[in-house]
Amino acid sequence: MREIKVGLIGFGTVGAGVVKILQRNSRVIEKRMGAKILLKKVADIDLKSDRGVRLKRGVLTKEADEIIRDPEIDIVMELIGGIEPAKTYILRAIHHRKHIVTANKALLALHGDEIFKAAHRFGVDVNFEASVGGGIPLIRSIKEGLVANRIQSIFGILNGTSNYILTKMTEEGSSFKQVLKEAQEMGYAEADPTLDIEGIDAAHKLAILIRLAFGTPFRFENIFIEGISEITPLDIQFSREFGYRIKLLAIAKMEEGKLEARVHPTMIPETHLLSTVGGVFNAIYIKGDAVGPTLFYGQGAGQMPTGSAVISDLVELGRNILVKASGRRVPLLAYQESSIERVPLKRMDDLIMPFYMRFSALDRPGVLSKISGILGKNGISISAVIQKGRQINGAVPVVMMTHEAKESSVHRALKEIDRLGVILGKTMYIRVENELE
Q1: Contacts for 150 with CB less than 8 Å, ≥ 6 apart
Q2: pLDDT tier for residue 326 given thresholds of 50, 70 and 90
Q3: What pLDDT score does 324 carry?
Q4: Cβ–Cβ under 8 Å, residues 193 and 164
Q5: Alpha-carbon span 205 to 250, nearest angstrom
Q6: Annotation says 426 is catalytic
């Protein structure tokens, strides 16, 4: 039986998961692929730690170049993460005409253009199924399963840590700091959780999805990003009274030839499927013009789910090698290179949607009329109000839901309201998505 020789750079959690699956499911992989995957070399700076798997003598090395320069190795897996030295290793491997498998969402979001251009130049493939959604077969579905569709919108719960925190806050009424500490103790959150809780990780993944779904050379820095660290149990309680749940959503929409790209806490109707996605799970809701709404759900991280996605990429590349394809069977970024076009980005200030607002006000007559007057002056109408008599830190929460309003008008109104002497502290506001389509 034909052998496809591969090399692995990065023998951490995911790398060890890949090896476990290759060893445990070698027979079923061979039956589906028609060839054996031979792991010829594994490179890592740590040669001594026990990963729970055994490698043959001579397979493990500290030198990534032993993999990159080996003429027998067809495919290089990069699973070290981060920008450097991962970027250097990948580009060097491409120059040696190796196909690439990577799970490195940050690298692809920030430096994908350079990597994909090099791959086109040297005629190799770059597969990255594990970079978004862990074990969920999402990227291949966009590149192949939804190829007949114009993608209209993407709404994604793309970060398990943030979703776990919001789920626990919703179910238990705990504070953000309390749940974050628990998540760190359980291994769901890093010691420095900034990438997760501030929306950066989800934005990395959204940048990749945008390129695949809309065929545009999108830049990561054009994504509007807000995290969940300001969300309080009070906001979650009031959102439930209005019939909503708060989720950190990664959103991309194409409307009237302009693209929206944003990551922020969002209130979504409790009747929507995405509102039921709890814990560390991920879910991506995609609407195509022909297929309609589709939902992809599963474990967005973890050793074995991510390892499963990495091996699916290995098998796809192996099949291409076996048939000696004269060119790649599927474009690297779903669209043919010559068809990728720049799409104008819609400014956040121009977005129109309902808003949730929570004011911390002194319990005095006329406060509500002052707030509503400023909102009305800025063209913002109120759809519902909840006013509690219970004081919190000397102030009474006044909560409003607005009808659709322009983002720039909301910013202007809240800036004026927050200057009122009866308002204590900065007003909390959350964007609302009623129509997730």
Answers
A1: 254, 288, 289, 290
A2: very low
A3: 67
A4: no
A5: 9
A6: no
Do 268 and 436 form a contact (C-beta atoms < 8 A)? yes
Strand, helix or coil at 111?
helix
Tell me if 205 sits within 8 A of 250, measured CB to CB.
Answer: yes
Q: What single-letter DSSP state applies at residue 130? A: G
- The Cα 405–Cα 350 span in angstroms is 10
Average predicted confidence (pLDDT) for the chain: 93
Give the position of tokens 């890949």: 18
- pLDDT of 21 higher than 90: yes
What is the DSSP code (8-state) at residue 407? H
Structure pTM?
A: 0.92
Beta bridge partners of 360: 397
Tell me the three state secondary structure of residue 49: coil
| 194-241 tens-digit pLDDT | 999 999 999 999 999 999 999 998 999 999 999 999 999 999 999 999
Output the six-digit token pair for 243. Answer: 């019939």
The DSSP element (H or E) to which 379 belongs, if any, is none
Is the separation of the CB atoms in 49 and 68 below 8 Å?
Answer: no
Query: How confident is the model over 114-150, as pLDDT tens digits?
Result: 999 999 999 999 999 999 999 999 999 999 999 999 9
In angstroms, the CA 284 to CA 295 distance is 6
Q: Which residue among the candidates 105, 205, 247, 287 is catalytic per the annotation?
A: 205
What domains can you pick out in the chain, each with its CATH number? 3-135+303-339 (3.40.50.720), 139-299 (3.30.360.10), 349-432 (3.30.70.260)
- Which value, in Å, is the radius of gyration of the alpha carbons in the chain? 24
Banded pLDDT at 287 (limits 50, 70, 90): very high
Q: What is the dihedral of CA 74, 329, 20, 300, to 10 degrees?
A: 130
